[in-house]
Amino acid sequence: MSKLPEDFYQKVYQLVKQIPTGKVTSYGAIAKALGSPQSARTVGYAMNASHKLNNVPAHRVVNRNGVLTGKHHFSGTHAMQQLLEAEGLVVIDDQIQDFDKHIWQPKNIDT
DNA sequence: ATAATGACTCCCC
DNA sequence: GGGGGAGCCATTA
């Protein structure tokens, strides 16, 4: 692990942990809040590492389209979908309904 | 140090 | 509206 990117991960975790129940956000939004809108891909990578943590609701993080692209990385096939539905969201075919209404805009922690 | 991979996003056809 | 290609960042081999 490099020295600088490590902070990036911490920011990602910190932000994801701040996502309120019943809300979701996108990798790009997180990356942007971190001051690196082009590091959306890296955010996903951080999520992968967040799997070893227990306080990082990665299931609330989806792509900008509101699609559960990373559901495949979860325990089961629909584990992510079930989690979101259990939080009051509506997920159909790995697609969050009214994603724009359930989206959660993170605050810039980079400032 | 170079090359390949990935839970993304944007641009073009 | 749907599909394909390129770009960016960080990690791993």
- The proportion of residues in beta strands is 5-15%
Number of helices: 5
Distance separating the two termini = 24 Å
CATH class: Mainly Alpha
According to CATH, the homologous superfamily is: Winged helix-like DNA-binding domain superfamily/Winged helix DNA-binding domain
Order of helices and strands: HEHHEHEEH
Largest sheet: 2 strands, parallel
CATH topology: Arc Repressor Mutant, subunit A
Please tally the β strands and state the result.
Answer: 4
Overall 3D geometry? globular
What would the average pLDDT be, to the nearest integer?
A: 91
Rg from Cα = 13 Å
Strand order of the largest sheet: 1-2
What would you say the CATH architecture is? Orthogonal Bundle
Structural category is mainly alpha
* Tally of distinct domains: 1
Structural notes for this entry:
- The chain is mainly α.
- The protein has a single domain (4-102), classed as Orthogonal Bundle (Arc Repressor Mutant, subunit A).
- It is built from 5 helices and 4 strands.
- The strands form 2 sheets. A two-stranded parallel sheet has the order 1-2.
- It starts with a helix and ends in a 9-residue tail after the last helix.
- The structure holds a DNA duplex (13 and 13 nucleotides).
Question: What are the main properties of this structure?
Answer:
DNA-binding; Arc Repressor Mutant, subunit A; two-stranded parallel ribbon; 40% helix; mainly alpha; 4 strands; two-stranded antiparallel sheet
In brief:
The protein is mostly helical and 111 residues long. The protein has helices spanning 4-17, 27-33, 40-50, 79-86, 99-102; strands at 25-26, 61-62, 91-92, 95-96.
